[in-house]
Amino acid sequence: MAELVTLTIDGQEVAVPRGTTILEAAKQIGKQVPHYCYHPGMSSPAMCRLCLVEVEGAPNSMPSCVTAVMEDQVVHTESKQALENRRGVLEFYLVNHPLDCPICDMSGECDLQDYVHAEGRDRGRSDEPKRVFGRDDFGGDVLFYGDRCVMCTRCVRFMNEVEQDQRLTVVERGNRSVIDTFFEEGLEGTHWHGNIVDICPVGALVSKEFLHKARAWDLERTSSICPSCSQGCNIELHTRDNLIQRIKPRENLEVNGWWMCDFGRHNHEWVNRGGQLEDPLVRGPDGVIGAAGWRDALGDLLQHVRGVGGARVKAVATPFASNENLGTLAELVDALGGGDMVYRSVRAEDEIVLKGFPTLARRKDLAPNTSGAELIGFTRVGDDQAAGGLENIATYDGIIIIMGDELSDQEANFGKEAALFVYMGDQQSPAAENAHFVLPVSTFAEEEGSFTNVAGRVQCFSPALKASGMARPAWMILGALAAELNKGDAPRSAADAFSSLASRVEAFAGITYGDLGTRGVVVNETYVLSEN
Amino acid sequence: MAISVKVMNRPDPEHTSYLRAALSGMALTFRHLVNPTKVTQQYPEELTNLSPRWRGTHRMEVHADGRPKCVACGLCPTVCPANCIRLVGGEDDQGNRYPIVYEIDEFRCIFCGMCQEVCPVEAIHVGQHFENAEYTRGRFVYDLDRLMEQDHPTTLLWDPSDPSSE
User: Fold this and answer.
1) Which of A306, A327, A467, B92 is spaced 20 to 30 Å from A493 by Cα?
2) CB contact under 8 A, A102 and B78
3) Residue A19's domain spans which residues?
4) Where does the pLDDT of residue B161 fall: very low under 50, low under 70, confident under 90, or very high at 90 and above?
5) A107 has pLDDT over 90
6) Are residues A37 and A161 in the same domain?
7) Taking Cα atoms as reference points, which of B54, B77, B101 lies closest to residue A217?
8) Helix H or strand E encompassing A246
9) Higher model confidence: residue A54 or residue B159?
10) Quick one: A166 exposed, middle or buried, by C-beta within 10 A (0-12, 13-18, 19+)?
11) How many separate domains does chain A show?
12) Residues of chain B with C-beta less than 8 angstroms from the C-beta of A102
């Protein structure tokens, strides 16, 4: 621990390590000094001049984002001098700003809007015509509205320092200066450029995918974990009308910093695709499959299971399922007398590392919970396209349980011989034609649960959407069955399912669902998988 | 207790006759018959004068080239207390933000006029209009084309000579 320096900010004493900036020290006591160019993940050029604060004894106001704290310093962030300064700076920002908030996608979450409302002048005094740049396509997913830009250069610094692929620069000088790309291709081909839309404090950089789609104040924001690779980036799902509208990264310095990759950011159409299974389907004695309620479906299933008796289980799970779902499936397989548990997952050819934050990468593993599946005892089969590997299951004559795997590469006669074939998924699969039971389960966006990422960090996610029809989390269905077979209690929440997992699987021992919090917990070190 | 009967005397004819009331009523009628001031309104040949602040069904203003003035900012559905406006924004060929879907459920509307007040581009207005009869309920959900076709005068929400109420 570095040596502590004590200073006074707005009459409140605060002790911070030497070298901390005034802006960060003020954050410690809950004071947000307005700023544009400063971002904790990048260098500070101190060029927006908005974070100037009054420091007693200093001849001028000091930029708080680059001024290190000093012993016994007295800082005022809301004195007359500081407020006058911000009012003046904000007036300059509005000289050329088009004030097109009604058609700007940033409206409602814009720092310029917020600061001017809070501290700016109510009317501008500039009589000059505003300079007009218009709109520019930066390639990739990014549109640039030059007139709205406040020249904080966060985007330029992100590309130079964090992605380390120099694609943007400031051209011209003075009030003609504008952000531009070097070549025709712009940001095309870069893998992290979605982040410059997030860090843009105004609406100068907007996402083409999200353009005019929803207003910021209409969106529900739910903490979640990115399901697109095994990195486990912390994200927020922004939803409206029971659809995911966009995905934004959530800060977690242990995993993804402030960033996320474009692949994960735009990979949400599969949740929104619709056509989900809504009712449990049960095959009657006449061989016709029809909808049933949960009570009947589970009752029938139990009867069926007891009738089959003694056959070993072959279970195929998806690594998109949470620890709770996989753990409860393993528990059920045990209760049925054991069997083989496998999973299939897509693997990319290489990792895409974010150079300025090297612990973050789009991993090879394109599923969020392969680590969890391995720890719980599932083994990987099939190739890198998540195809094949199920040959001996397709013709198996015992109990087959499919959870989440859509069997898209399998023939229609899959499981024809099976004594009991249970298919659980959110979508109907053509290969599940022979299933005796088709049970609708919710997706990660519709349920509570946790994923174990590539580094063995267990992180939980919250439900953002309403599951369709009678779909239920898989742990609820499997847990009820396992409880009947074991004469135990069925889990009533994801936390219950997790604690029963923790009591059965040593890697999770000692962790409770409450421990996970917003930052996650790493499983026992000896279980961390070396391979990504 | 013995039941006693109270005998009420019948009122004299001077107080019970309806003749007096009928005559005074007829007198009023005849007075109006010869009175030159007409009070009956000849609707629909003659239309009533609505107050300039009368708030009736909506109307969308259009540009000279026929495009709606609306920029799909989303403020009217946000401010609407009755939640009667449905809006889906999009981008047209010229890169302008415009409403792909703009519907107002006039049955649900409470005619508060806040949509007109909040509109940053003076596109949506409530109007001085009250003849809204339709044959089906569905016709009371006005879509964008219907709103643009309306040609009744728009409502004044404030005195134009003193717009900021100073």
Assistant:
1) A306
2) no
3) 4-78
4) confident
5) yes
6) no
7) B77
8) strand A243-249
9) A54
10) exposed
11) 3
12) 71, 73, 75, 120-121
Q: Is residue A475 part of a domain?
A: yes
Q: Which domains does chain B have, with CATH numbers?
A: 58-149 (3.30.70.3270)
How does residue A351 score in pLDDT terms, banded at 50, 70 and 90?
A: very high
Tell me the CATH number at A108. Answer: 3.30.70.20
Interface of B with A (CB under 8 A): 71-75, 78, 89-91, 95, 97, 120-121
The pLDDT of residue B34 is 86
Q: How many whole angstroms separate alpha carbon A482 and alpha carbon A479?
A: 5
Q: Do A212 and B89 touch (CB under 8 A)?
A: yes
Assess whether A188 and A301 both reside in one domain: no
Mean pLDDT of chain A, nearest integer: 93
Minimal Cα–Cα distance from B46 to chain A, Å? 42
A73/A101 same-domain check = no
* Rg (alpha carbons) of chain A, rounded to whole number: 27
**Is residue A309 domain-shared with residue A418, that is, in the same domain?**
yes
Note whether A240 contacts B: Cβ–Cβ < 8 A.
no
**pLDDT confidence of A1, banded at 50, 70, 90?**
low
Specify burial of residue A300 (Cβ count, 10 A radius: 0-12, 13-18, 19+): middle
Q: Can you give the CATH number for the domain in which A35 is found?
A: 3.10.20.740
Which residue in B110, B113, B104 sits closest to B143, CA to CA? Answer: B104
Closest chain B residue to A217, measured at CA? B78
Model confidence pLDDT, tens digit, residues B85-98 = 999 999 999 889 99
Beta carbons of B126 and B116 less than 8 angstroms apart: yes
- How large a percentage of chain A has pLDDT more than 90? 85
Yes or no, beta carbons of B91 and A211 under 8 Å apart: yes
Spatial contact of A447 and A322, defined as CB atoms under 8 Å apart: yes
- Residue A83 belongs to a domain: no
Helix axes A474-486, A494-504, angle to 10 degrees: 60
Q: Which residue has the tokens 């229609």?
A: A412
Please report the number of interchain residue pairs, chain A to chain B, with beta-carbon separation below 8 angstroms: 26
To the nearest whole Å, the CA of B87 is away from the closest chain A CA by: 10
- Minimum Cα–Cα distance from B73: chain A residue: A102
Helices A323-335 and A494-504 cross at an angle (nearest 10°) of: 60
Residue A121 lies in a domain: yes
Token pair belonging to B48 = 């009533």
pLDDT recorded at residue A532: 42
Residue A527's pLDDT is: 60
Is residue A136 within 8 A of residue A180, CB to CB? The reply is yes
Token look-up 């619709």 returns A274
* Other CB atoms within 10 A of residue A299 CB: 14
A237-289: pLDDT as tens digits? 999 999 999 999 999 999 999 999 999 999 999 999 888 999 999 998 888 99
What is the reported pLDDT for B11?
81
Please state, in angstroms and rounded to a whole number, the distance separating the CA atoms of residues A327 and A323.
6
Do the Cβ atoms of B78 and A217 come within 8 Å? Answer: yes
Q: How confident is the model at residue A516 (pLDDT cuts 50, 70, 90)?
A: very high
Does A460 have pLDDT greater than 80?
yes
Helix segments in B17-113, DSSP class H: 19-34, 75-79
d(CA A158, CA A94): 25
